[in-house]
Write a structure and sequence with these properties.
Rossmann fold; eight-stranded mixed beta sheet; binds NADP nicotinamide-adenine-dinucleotide phosphate; single chain; alpha/beta
Length: about 210
Amino acid sequence: MRIGIVGAGMIGGTLARLFVGAGHEVTVSNSRGPATLRQMVEELGPRAHAATVDQAARFGEVVVLAVPWRTPQALPPAELLQGKVVVDAMNPYAEGGGMVELGESTSSEETRKRLPGARLVKAFNTIWYQHLGTRGRTDLPLDERHAVFVAGDDDEAKATVSRLIQEIGFAPIDTGGLRDGGRRQQPGTPLYNRILTGAEARALVNAAEG
Ligand SMILES: NC(=O)c1ccc[n+]([C@@H]2O[C@H](COP(=O)([O-])OP(=O)(O)OC[C@H]3O[C@@H](n4cnc5c(N)ncnc54)[C@H](OP(=O)(O)O)[C@@H]3O)[C@@H](O)[C@H]2O)c1
């Protein structure tokens, strides 16, 4: 699969390495331009490329958003993501700490408003990048793997992202649609930044769904 990554820091850079390791073709991008990513892609090998944000968006069949949520100018133009599976890994941290006040809304619903036409899936936002980088285990059954949560309203897009999660050694756990599932995945919830197996995570989600 061709995967575009917007934001090649702790979470985007870790995902790039894992996706390349699983055999995918990856294009990474950041705010400073492709020249600053040369060393990263050299280390990742021939399946990794560095490009601008717009090029990474065009390249990806799946596009991962791994930039600060509070800087919408970091996102590619919505027209480049029309019909694409787009993964929102972002959390709404404010500049200098704390959370952006969103009232009744959630950060991924706001992302969807910014990117109409994208097939948005909220994923990877609950897992600390060091756990993501080290805890994937393709040798374990799903119930025993570290859980990675997914939320979204497009079942096919969610299935695509869930397959990618499995391929890099984690257990995808569906929390529901973008609104309610996305809310379950927010910072401060029982699912956020916890070490949970697939079986434990599913039990927690089922209990939350009541
Ligand atoms: N760190 C984690 O463990 C973790 C876990 C789950 C979710 N997240 C979420 O993932 C997102 C990224 O976090 P991170 O920890 O990976 O941050 P990070 O290491 O600071 O990386 C941020 C990336 O976004 C890029 N960026 C910033 N402004 C940009 C712009 N205007 N245009 C294009 N790219 C821009 C940066 O590019 P430059 O380097 O060129 O500035 C950098 O590549 C956040 O929304 C965070 O909440 C983080």
